[in-house]
Amino acid sequence: MVEIEKLREIAREVISREDVRQLIGYRQGTYGFRARPAFVTTPEEVDQLIFSPACVNNLATYLTLEEKLPVPRGQEPDLRKVAVMVKGCDSRALVQQMEEKAYERDRIVVLGIPCTGVVDMDKVEERFPNVLSRGEIAMEGDKFVLSFDGKREEVPKEELLADKCRRCRYPTPLVYDQLLDEEVARFADDDYSDVLELEKRSAEEKWAYWEEKFSRCIRCYSCRNVCPMCYCEDCVLDRLNPQWMRRSVDISENTAYHIARAYHLAGRCIQCGECQRVCPVEIPLMELNRKFYKDVEELYDYEPGTDAEAPPLLATFKVDDREDFIL
Amino acid sequence: MAEKNSDFEPNIVAFLCNWCSYAGADLAGTSRIQYPSNVRVIRVMCSGRVNPLFVMNALQQGADGVLISGCHPGDCHYMQGNYYARRRFMLMRNFLEYLGVEPERVRMSWVSASEGAKWKEVIEEVVSGVKSVGPMNKFQRRQLNW
Questions:
Q1: What's the gap in Å between the CA of B32 and the closest CA on chain A?
Q2: A236 burial via Cβ count (<10 Å: 0-12, 13-18, 19+)
Q3: Could you tell me if B52 lies within 8 Å of chain A, comparing CB atoms?
Q4: Number of structural domains, chain B?
Q5: Which among B70, B65, B119, B74 is positioned nearest to B93, based on CA atoms?
Q6: Model pTM score
Q7: ipTM score for this prediction
Q8: CATH classification of the domain holding B64
Q9: How far apart are CA A27 and CA A5, in angstroms?
């Protein structure tokens, strides 16, 4: 686990640099052990920064989310860098964004956090109801330690670990300027068991499963807004001409939305799991993304967010790509 | 599903590339080759023009099946458009299958300008495939019946 003092010291050093405009990290949330993003612009603010297993957010989102206002005449644009703290999965979002030329590598300063896994708040809530808002959490070795109401509960890591961490192939950031701790060895691998299980069902069973999930969707678009890869300035969902999907919340338009969202992440989704985490109606969005992830790996031997120099998957081809489905 | 085995005539939307498949279908017509009349042809300049969302949209708007047809690999008028299309529709087809849309509904073919006879075979294959899975009854837009 990263030492907080070391983290703050490095952060203070970075934000004091002339060429750094802002540092994006984590700070304590309002209640309990929830963490929220912190946007640090002065060295004094550095003392609020933390890192704990509750730091689930993917901060790579904020790099592309920032509004770029036109610069008034006579003024120079602010070209200073943005520093960002990333876990292993978040760093892959940076790599993928750079692969797509969202920004140049020298525009950002990356503080890498070797990550031993984060908690799934829903699992905590299920096991210890109502402690989210008044407890504390830490990771000690292979256990999560929750303290609340003067009690101390030790829970094996496996039981509260977020699903994305169970199959994390890259716990140590793939891109960084400074690493805040020792590298972490890979502690899990992906066997796609959830996708394989769904694939085995018949067409009717599959549709029955997805129809139930999609019909719950309230089209809040949280999954799009939180996604670090969804940063098109002109999104097909907002477009009125052509209007790809209507605003009405029914099974037809909801399905269209989920097809479009998942397809636009084909070969781009880096498995950070943010979409599923923020979904208010608990649609298993990662099962959609993971289908593409699996296909892309099997068919085209491509893993998103691992090589910033490679061309994006659908912007390239091989002459001998599989075509046994073609008549 | 009641119609599945009776006289169900599917609607099939076909996106044909201007240079090969459209000319191939035209040749089938001028050669007076008989093939099922379930296809509604939309001409595009290249199979690489076909957005995967077209497939989703066609199925939403009442198509029972979609066919995308382009030049053979290496013959693309724009050098590489069909290669890109091949990747896109491989993924789209697998994904729709994962959601429960039968793979018979989303087909792709290479038909060149001289293959009027192959066009007939492709259409027969597509139509019989769609007939075997019946009408699309999953996520098409429902018309309000006032």
A1: 22
A2: middle
A3: yes
A4: 1
A5: B65
A6: 0.92
A7: 0.90
A8: 3.40.50
A9: 14
